[in-house]
Amino acid sequence: IVTVNCARLLKADHHATNGVVHVIDKVIATTTNSIQQIIETEESLETLRAAVAASDLNSLLESEGQYTLLAPTNEAFEKIPRETLNRILGDPQALKDLLNHHILKSAMCAEAIIAGLTMETLEGTTLDVGCSGEELTLNGKPIIANKDVLATNGVVHFVNELLIPDSAKTLLELAQESEVSKSMDLFRQAGLSSHLT
Prior knowledge:
elongated, alpha+beta, about 30% helix, three-stranded antiparallel beta sheet, FAS1 domain, 3 domains
């Protein structure tokens, strides 16, 4: 699937006497802002703006290149427990891992994403893309709220749920999502929870 500034290429290579015509499915608008500038001007990305500044990712997101930012909205940050959010925001490495988990190494427009695709993040982890009806899903969840916001150095998709990588989780958080949850109950009963957090 070929896209031009996220417009889908419908018919290619119509040869004319003075050139070639490619038919696309929408009008291409002028793109003037970098990904960083989109973050700075969009009200729904206020928390992300602060997180990016705290992790020194500003220069990356305004540099030349082709990235995809899965931008967590304020709503996405509000969905996780305040204690968990404060811990991540206060841990520079966990915060950097969290944000890099939301950045893809190449620009991926929604039209060009094929269900069943595995995409690699800057953190080195992968995200699985699928479909739920007409909606795109990330790791099985239809969380893309607004797609294909074009930037001079890539594309931004707004997501309404935070994608937290394992490297940004405590041992307790990891264990609660795994097959050892019963063991965690024993640690709690023994008064050892603090060691896992």
